[in-house]
Amino acid sequence: MIGIATSIGRGLRLKLSDWGWSARLLGTLLLHLGFSLRRFALVREQIYFLGNRSLSIIGVSGLFVGFVLALQGYYTLQRYGSAEAVGLLVALSLVRELGPVVAALLFAGRAGTSLTAEIGLMKAGEQLSAMEMMAVDPIQRVLAPRFWAGFIAMPLLAAVFSAVGIIGGWLVAVPLIGIDAGSFWSQMQGGVDVFKDVGNGFVKSVVFGVTVSFVALLQGYACKPTPEGVSQATTRTVVLSSLAVLGLDFILTAMMFSI
User: Fold this and answer.
1) What would the pLDDT profile of 37-93 be if each residue is shown by its tens digit?
2) Dist. CA 95–CA 161, nearest whole Å
3) CA–CA gap between residue 223 and residue 29 (Å, rounded)
4) If 0-12 CB within 10 Å is exposed, 13-18 middle and 19+ buried, where does residue 106 land?
5) What 3-state DSSP class applies to 45?
6) Are 182 and 84 in contact (CB under 8 A)?
7) Cα(242)–Cα(107) distance, integer angstroms
8) Which of 39, 141, 152, 213 is the most buried (most CB within 10 A)?
9) What angle do CA 39, 41, 44 make, to 5 degrees?
10) Quick one: which of 201, 158, 171, 159 has its CA closest to 87?
């Protein structure tokens, strides 16, 4: 029994140590905002890498999600004689929930894995150690610009996802099904609140951007400097980021709709 208790205590101590180190890294990244703004060219390069390179998968996914929402919404609302409200259903589903969440999951799968693999390979190639030898802080020079680029890129990608999804819903609802275009847009305009709906979706996308970027950088920076270590860190990035996004989505939704 003493051996079991000792093993449990040792495991808890190591886990708390890891959490403390992660919190210190997050605090350091937040404190390097000033450097990132002064050297915004570094952030701009990463915004292009993380944001522009993700537009194709974000746009195509948003379009097909809009298609499906319009079809499912029409078949459901038609039973109650409210088929004209399909535009409102599509818009609320996207800006409140699906836009931030699905965009964050795609962002984790495409950009998060790239960040982890890039930082992990730099660590395996001892590039980060070489920076330290030259008195260059790798957190400030390498990690911080990527962190703040993810912070900026994620809300923009979520907005693109929602906008393209609404266009996809219009393409299915109006030209294909035959719903009146005026009813489609007027229901949407009258039912979507800028602050309550769009604002809540924006807050979610910002939180998801910070979470996914930090998890990706943390896994890359803390991975073992071996090919196996980099591959395992990349896998952990997808798993942990996805679970974190879904868990935070539930928490944020409960908080937003309880106020």
Assistant:
1) 888 888 899 999 888 888 999 999 999 999 999 999 888 888 888 888 888 899 999
2) 9
3) 18
4) buried
5) helix
6) no
7) 10
8) 213
9) 125
10) 171
